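Dear support,

We are seeing what looks like truncated structure output for some complexes. This example has two components. We would appreciate it if you could run it in full and send us the complete token output so we can diff it against ours.
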Amino acid sequence: MSGEESFSRRLMIAATMLLFKSHRRPGVRGWELKHRLGKNYMRVIDALNSRLKQLGLEIKTVFEEGEENNLDRARFYVVLSHPLTMSDLVAAGWRIDEVAALSITLSILSSRGGKAPLRDVLEVLETKFPKWKAETYLERAIRRGYIERLEDDVLTIGWRTKVEVEQKALLKAVLEAREEKEIRSD
Amino acid sequence: MRRIEVTREELERIIKLCENIEKRGLDPFTVNIRELLEKLRRIVEENPNLDHYIIDAETLYRISALIALQHKWLREKAKALFIDAQMISTRLVAMDKKMLVKAFLKAWHPIISLEQITPQRLRQGLEHFLSLPPRSGSREFGWKITDKEMKLAKARLELEEKAMMEKIKALHRELLRRFEEQGGALDYWEFIKGKNFDETFERAYLLSFLITEGYVDVKRNPLKNEVKLIPHKEQVKRKSPTSLVISLRGEI
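Here is the complete output from our reference environment:
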């Protein structure tokens, strides 16, 4: 097998590993990629990333807390590189209410350093939804991995938020959204 | 004596306060650290006895943890462009649902991944489906499971159960034999070790049934990191059973 053929085969293996879920959670660890693709696996990942970018996707690397330089322990995911539109969201089966509740919850948690009492989050959610709905949306977010519930009813940012949501961008968007509304009302 | 109790209570209150801030993610700058340290110094000087030193040390540790939390809090705030949490909450209340969703969409890059079905999973699904009891009355849609198919599925399940029971019994006999040969408790890891990971996993799985049913006792020594097995010929009833999680190395 020529070098080029071997490289394109490794590209295919990497794409399969990253796109097909093989564990309970999506994503592949660096050491798993190294095992299948060889020690220069980052070269394969970079090449795959540039190809995926043409399709509006990208590979995201999430490091373990406290191990910011350890690629072997990091997790690799394929994520959408461009933002979704409202119609995309509805077509994907999400409810506007549910995403609004998620937006509120994650904004509160991000603005408080990633942790907040459940009571405080529910207080804001209940200004938009009835209590039972707010609790249902929170439970669903916990199940999906966007938030985690610790003992003493404290909520924290979940693994999925760390992968999917740019927290700084979310806070900025919340602030800017208000300005857009003000401009419109003017 | 009364004085000592009061200072102890005071220290416990400080510890509780620090713990609460840490656990609930509250603003660590709401506490005046200098004041707490001055109070602690006064208490230490007034009560120079060994009993008191332990709780003094605990308090100092909690205050130090709070200082570390202040450092972390500042770093997080800087990362979040020093946006005030209260301001965010006020804005969230003022925004309508569509605005909230639009804001979220600007920052959201969902994971792309596909679920895949393996032949093994497909077989499990079919077995589960066939084991479901038939709905009362006739089905109006979908396909019917005939009585014959149901009998076949049940017979297959019974066969599998029988094979499993045989394996468990064989493992029990092996355990008893090795226990007699060795004349003492057997090491868990040595016993479950098979030719490959699959066999090791199977032996550990089968052994867990024997342990649950009371045919084998497990003794764990956390200091030596040892897990020992003591088999019984007959089932032994346990007064207060507990759970023990043992993870096997190998990727699942």
